[in-house]
């Protein structure tokens, strides 16, 4: 009798336990906001995307093996991969989800999450992924007309038929995904790809011209929006009257954002995964006019327009192909907003960009992904591909077993980072009672030449007042007592090298003697993780 009761209790608890675990695992991925910070929650906990993006034409079954090879070599946890409107709805109204099925099955086999990229009305500003039946009907689904009446290779954002067709296909995708992906292999969806127009600031067709003469929508006339757009005087009226020389680009941004926002909202109605839009950037330092960048996309200057026009979009994300610390760090700063979780869905796959990954994590960003990780059918040898992926692979290999820890620390604002500037100058990081001083270069700190490329970086997680986890490459670190500790003598209590696994630090060795006495611990070409305790005397 007693045995039976025990068994029943055990079974009951088992059911509760399972339900609890399943409840967590079944939580739909979502953006969570707390204290002005953002996180991507996957399976109910903060998740950090260590991603890699496929080349544009690699989401075909015959090409997928090379995708998985790259993802494995890279130690990535997420594949960003396109799904193509032209394939999904090759025949109008008939949907083929076989590529999505293949992606779901294979990514589960590889234990990898997916971010799906909806290549649809816009792909790099053009209509090239529209199905053939749309491309053949340029009257019903027209492109933009340029200022001199010339054809422009970019879909008009003012066409209801185009938007309705996109909405129909995207809702079918999201409806299907809800059914096919109850375990949430797909954690986020990118709506369109670099929407906007190259080659014309806006559409100048008669229809667009008529809309341009209409009053600016009330959503944009709110004082806070106008202020964010640098419009000093609040007026109502036409686009030209309210926005002057910026009227064309703001008009285009409003219409592209409204279109994409409606597609996203319709998709979310079926299945509310986090959704984002990626931006082909403009130079963030010189405030160029829209004839110098892709007009209408979520570039830094029109973020307030996108926020007002497309509330269903969770975040606007920069594709980073710019060079130089000043530009790149400025871009990261501009997209890191309380109302915009920071995410870099594309960056050039070059060693120098790994340092911006550190900056993004330290700012509480939800992920980072270099573009073009696979071989793209070029037949390169495995070693060649590995060399190509190496810079990110080394970082991801270090981060892989501690992804949840990093995501949690990042969400709690416990991480700070320093990246090597082009002039290789020393960087200081304030940590309450301590200041970390980071110098970049070879093994003997200032006595050896600086790094040839400015690739050094470090991130510091503050565990408590005197205890830190430090990860970095190509730099030395030392400390200075500040704040409450100012003027005090100090020393290392303990410097341990190791790694994190399931929230437990696993020690490889204690660093001491030459490894700490000459300018502080040194971080070489390959990232290492140190747990450092400091003490005053
Ligand atoms: C940015 C786009 O978003 C990608 O799809 C790809 O075309 C890259 N540019 C190529 O560099």
Q: Could you characterize the architecture of this molecule?
A:
It is a single chain. The chain is globular and about 75 Å long. A hairpin with a 2-residue loop joins strand 2 and strand 3. By secondary structure, the protein is of the alpha/beta class. Helix 6 (160-180) runs parallel beside helix 10 and helix 10 crosses helix 11. It is 33% helix and 26% strand. It has two domains: 3-204 and 246-413, TIM Barrel, CATH 3.20.20; 416-536, Chondroitinase Ac, Chain A, domain 3 (Sandwich). The model is unreliable at 1-23 (pLDDT under 50). The protein has helices spanning 2-25, 64-74, 85-88, 98-109, 132-135, 160-180, 206-212, 223-228, 239-243, 247-270, 303-309, 325-335, 354-362, 382-399, 403-411, 514-517, and strands spanning 30-34, 37-42, 45-47, 49-53, 78-84, 113-123, 143-145, 151-155, 186-193, 275-280, 315-320, 343-344, 346-347, 367-368, 415-419, 427-430, 434-440, 457-464, 467-473, 475-481, 490-501, 504-510, 522-523, 528-536. It has a nine-stranded parallel β-sheet with strand order 12-14-4-5-6-9-10-11-13. It has a six-stranded antiparallel β-sheet with strand order 15-18-19-24-21-22, covered by helices on one side. Bound molecules: (2R,3S,4R,5S)-2-(hydroxymethyl)piperidine-3,4,5-triol. (2R,3S,4R,5S)-2-(hydroxymethyl)piperidine-3,4,5-triol is lined by residues 56, 124, 193-194, 278, 319, 346, 371.
